[in-house]
Each structure stands twice: as structure tokens, then as C-alpha cells.
Batch of 2 targets.
Target 1
Amino acid sequence: MPEQTATRDRSSPIPGLSPEATPILGLGLGLTGLALGLRPRLVPLPLALTALAAALYRDPNRVTPSEPGTLFAPADGVVLRVDETYEHRFVHSDCLRIAVAIAALDVPVCRCPAAGTVGYLEHVSGEYRPASDPEAAERNERLYIGVNTDWGPLLIALLAGPLARRISCRVQVGDRLEAGARVGTVRFGARADLYVQRDVVRLFTAPSQRLTAGITRIGEVVPL
């Protein structure tokens, strides 16, 4: 099994926000209090910066519908493309690949599209090309998360973008996940690619569609 070298996320003390937001918000509120005492007219600046930090580090709780045959969006963002490719790391099959561009102000937390067990993790160092770059899938720094579901394997690839130089992982090999479970984080504009077997799943998503991780239905398992 390839070694996992991506950072593991911590639990958050503030509901709805990433744990990384805690010191930033504490600093922002402290500066706001200091400005209030010394220069009240400057208070809007640290307040605005605190609000921006809270927006960038959102991690809302979501309830994914209990639909075993449904495939849900892996990330918040816009579908860049849907294409066919052979996936050789984990699925080992002809696959449909859904590439999702995650904007800087989108929720950066990625989620599992279907229930299953984590069977593969690999972190690959690389470049930081824009999400729209055709070669980003094989050139950028990325984290692969393979999940064995009841109907077959799927692979999630989290790609770091030009501004995000760190990918956080929230799972370990052997973890049992429900659909919509958090699997990792990529910030400040990035990309998430989902690989599913071509003949197993019927997709009903298309380029330019806006997705919400763990909520938007993007496909269904083809009945045997």
C-alpha cells in the first residue's frame, strides 16, 4: 500500500468551521477588540478580515439522503468536464471521470460519493497548475482516495491548485464511510476528480453544472 503523506485533519472546536479557522478567528477578534479600544474607526477592517477567514474555512454539517444506489457530488463547485479514461491505480477499468473545479470561496471539504470502505490512499507530489489545465490531473500535487462500495470501486482525486499548496486527508485505509462522509480538504481554488466504472454507473451530470458535495445527485448504479 502506498504511504499516505498528506496531512490528517483534526476535529473542529467550532461547529461549521474547520479547526484551522480557530487561531485565525481568535486573532481577528483580538485585533477587533484592540481597534475598538484604540481606533474605533478601524474596527471594520479586522471584522471584514475575520468574516473572510470564516468564509474560506467553512465546513458545514450536511445530511446526505439515504439512497444506496445514488452517486453524490464529491465536492462543491462547477463540473469542468465529463470524459472517459482508463484508471490504473485502483479501479483498473475503463472509467467515467467527473472533474469538478472548486473555487476559492467554495466550501473546500470533499465528501464520499457513496457508502464504502477506504481501500487505497496515495499522495503524489507535483505542480500547481490551474484546475482547467488539461494536464493538471497527471501533473499537479494530488491525493488519491479509493473506496470499495457494494457495487464496485471508485476513486477520488483531490488536486491542489495554484494557491493551495496543502491537501488534508480525513480518512485512513480500512475506514468505513457513509455517503457524504468527509474525506479531505483542498483550499483556495482546486479540483476534485471522481472516477467510476463506465458500465456500472449512469451519470446525469454535465459540464457547467453547479454541485454541492454530499447533496447533489450526479448518477445512479445501473441495475444488474
Note: Helices lie at 21-38, 44-56, 136-139.
Target 2
Amino acid sequence: MTVSTAFAKARADDRAALVGYLPAGFPDVAGGIDALRAMVDAGCDVIEVGLPYSDPVMDGPTIQAAAQQALDRGIRTTDVLRTVEAVAATGTPTVIMTYWNPVEHYGGGRRNGRSGVERFAADLASAGGAGLITPDLTPDSAPEWIAAADRHDLDKIFLVAPSSTDERIAMTTAACRGFVYATAVMGVTGARATTSDLAGPLVARTRATTDLPVGVGLGVSNGDQAATVASYADGVIVGSAFVRALLDHPDDRAAGLRALSALTADLADGVRRG
């Protein structure tokens, strides 16, 4: 199933899609795969696999803590791709969310006439990955990635923000495939007590430029918030709340998986009420 198909299926069910994020390698590679599969089983329609990075400028403290655990355990990009392969095998569309530097320098960067970007795209496609979310890469700076993604039939998911001008939104959505990622708040990731009042107008402005689904991320942590976002967005994207469910059970993985499944079920119920 592709990302577009997952969103279309949710739309046919008269609901928003639930998009769940965890960094690969957290709490370790095998544990991360188990956690992502639990999220699929409990109701996630699309999975984002984070590529842990040492300078996560967009991530708040919760995701930073999880990514640091993965880095401390020696996570490698090949482990991220192995995670994608395992989750994609469930039939759930699986994308990587990553800062640009690891993609550009994948496999040692350009060598033997082949760039790191091209090798990354080829290996992501071979692993069954559906595409890439690039929070620090804008379409006007991404010709190499856009070309490589098109060659390997990968989705290109760029971000729009409340600060984006109408012209930037139009330029960004024209380059997207799969869905458009709308960041609901101006700031780093993290669960919040209330959803942003900037998200609804941003979704409306984005929809004015594209027929692609619009997913809203940054801040959702429970089913009621998911229902609110689902009332105006095509997808509800959740990351920090999932990470927190595991961080709260560092010494009991079974309990962490139960908490993760319960949270996913609550969020899945929320997108159906939206």
C-alpha cells in the first residue's frame, strides 16, 4: 500500500489518517521494530521512521532523548533501512523522516560517479520504503533529491508552516507527492496541552494550492486532540507522545509496548471521531 492509498482509504472511511513516528533504534533496533509493529497493529495508517541525528534542530527534548539513546547504542543508517523493511513488510506505508545531511553523505557521499542521495533513494526503495520527509530541506534546494525520488518512485514530503507565504506554500505543494506535512506550531516538536490555533488556517491555505492530503503534526498527544485536528486535516501526525510512552517504561519493555498500544488505540479512536 502506498501513502496515497492509505490516505484515500481513510477518506473513504470518512476519517483522517493516523500517522505515527518513532526514531529507529529506540530503545534498540529490535525493540524499535517491535514498537512500530505494535503501533501498526493498534491503528496507525502510515509510519514515520526517524533517522537519529546528532544535531536535531527541529526536535524537542523528548525525541532528542530517544534519538540520543539510539545514537549511544551505535545506530547506523543501515539499521534505519532495516527498520523500514521490517515495518513495510506489514503492508503499512513506511517513510523515513530525516535531516538532510545523512542522506547527502550516505555511503560516503559521491563516489564512483554515484551520489549519496542516489544510493539512499535506491536503498530506501529496495527496503520497501514509500518516501522521505525532509524537515530541513526545501524544494527549491532539493533538485537532486527530487530527481532521485522520481527515478525510484518515492514520495517527496516537504513541510509548510504558519509563517510560510502563500507563494512558498504553492511552490512546496507542487513539489510534494504522497502528502503535505503542515507543522501546526512555530517551535520544536513535543506533546502539548492544547492544539495550535494556527493549524486550521494553515491547512486551508495549503488546500487552496493542492489536491494532496494535508497532515498536521507537532503537539498531538491524546485522542481528544486527535479528534480536533481530524476535524479539519486529512492526517494527524503524532511523534513525541509515542516516544514518551516508551521513555516512561525504561526498565519494562512489555509495559512500554502496552502503553504504546493503548495510546495508539486512543488516537485511532480520536481520528474516527474528528
Note: The chain has twelve helices and nine strands.
